[in-house]
Amino acid sequence: MHAPQTQPPLDPEILLLAYRTGIFPMADARADPEVFWVEPRRRAILPLDHFHCSHSLAKVLRRGTFEVTCNRAFERVIAECAAPRRDEGETWISGRIEASYIELHRRGIAHSVECWQEGELVGGLYGVGFDRVFCGESMFSRRTDASKVALAWLVAALRQAGAVLLDCQFMTDHLASLGAVEISQSEYLERLRAAQIPTEGDGAAEGLGEGLGAGVAGLAAGLGEAEGLAAGAALPSGFGAVLAAAAGAGLSSSPGNFIAQSLIQTS
């Protein structure tokens, strides 16, 4: 069930342009109708070629403990991420923010990765994808290692799709254990600018790089140029490419085994 909201969802084009400038929205509580924009001084990213796949995680991947899908249950994933958690305060995912990302998903820009066990959704993550960038928003886990498996599949899919930047926003011990590192916001903006080269078929992003740092309002004039640039197809196409590569390696019945092998080689 979605949280009630009294404000309309954020304009999806403005929301996407915010991500292109390195900022993102948050709220103070689930029922909060207002949002505020965040630009962290220190930014967590997960280098795609330095994901730390532990031996225990590799075992879980090889065993196929979870069925992993992409975009099968986006609305359920974001609702689970917004649900109350033990030993944590109010969620920042308000009803208005939830509705805003559901609209981005309908436009093919926001995506989810789901982990299932015996038909039950037990873990997953969601985020925003554009050009060669994926901005992870939140994850949840109802079974041991479910969120780690979702992240491993995300990394594998983004690598297959040619993405170069996985933004994790804020550093946590959990992310650090998986290879995330913290960089300055200025370095993040440099990487973000370099990564805004569309994946094949997404069109050109001419002129957007010069606008980074100017703020959402300063980029509003570029909405016309930005139309169609964020097809956000990198994750879904990368997910399909992982399955195809696994099949090509004779592991179609065990794609997790293929992912474990590829991640261990670069971790």
Compact overview of the structure:
The chain is of the alpha+beta class and about 270 residues long.
Q: How many strand units?
A: 9
Q: Helicity level, as a percent range?
A: 40-55%
State the shape: globular
Q: Main beta sheet, described?
A: 7 strands, mixed
What is the architecture at the second tier of CATH?
3-Layer(aba) Sandwich
- What is the ordering of alpha helices and beta strands? HEEEHEHHEEEHEHEHHHHHH
CATH superfamily, called what?
Answer: Leucyl/phenylalanyl-tRNA-protein transferase, C-terminal domain
Mean pLDDT: 85
Beta-strand percentage range: 15-25%
Architecture blueprint of SSEs:
Elements (H helix, E strand, L loop, with lengths): L11 H9 L3 E3 L9 E3 L3 E4 L9 H9 L3 E4 L3 H9 L12 H12 L3 E8 L2 E11 L2 E9 L4 H16 L3 E5 L3 H5 L3 E4 H11 L12 H4 L4 H4 L3 H4 L7 H15 L6 H12 L1
Parallel strand pairs: 7-8
Antiparallel strand pairs: 1-2, 3-8, 3-9, 4-5, 5-6, 6-7
Helix pairs in contact: 2-12, 3-4, 5-11, 11-12
Key features?
267 residues, alpha+beta, Aminopeptidase, seven-stranded mixed sheet, 9 strands, 41% helix, 19% strand, globular
Q: What would you note in describing this structure?
A:
With 267 residues, the chain is α+β, with helices and mostly antiparallel strands. The protein has a single domain, classed as Aminopeptidase, CATH 3.40.630.70. The protein is built from 12 helices and 9 strands. The protein has helices at 12-20, 55-63, 74-82, 95-106, 146-161, 173-177, 185-195, 208-211, 216-219, 223-226, 234-248, 255-266; strands at 24-26, 36-38, 42-45, 67-70, 110-117, 120-130, 133-141, 165-169, 181-184. A 7-stranded mixed sheet has the order 4-5-6-7-8-3-9, sandwiched between helices. The chain has a two-stranded antiparallel ribbon with strand order 1-2. Helix 2 (55-63) packs antiparallel against helix 12 (255-266) and helix 5 (146-161) crosses helix 11. The longest helix is centred in the middle third of the chain and has 16 residues, at 146-161. It is globular and about 50 Å long. The termini are far apart. Mean pLDDT is 85; it is low at 201-231.
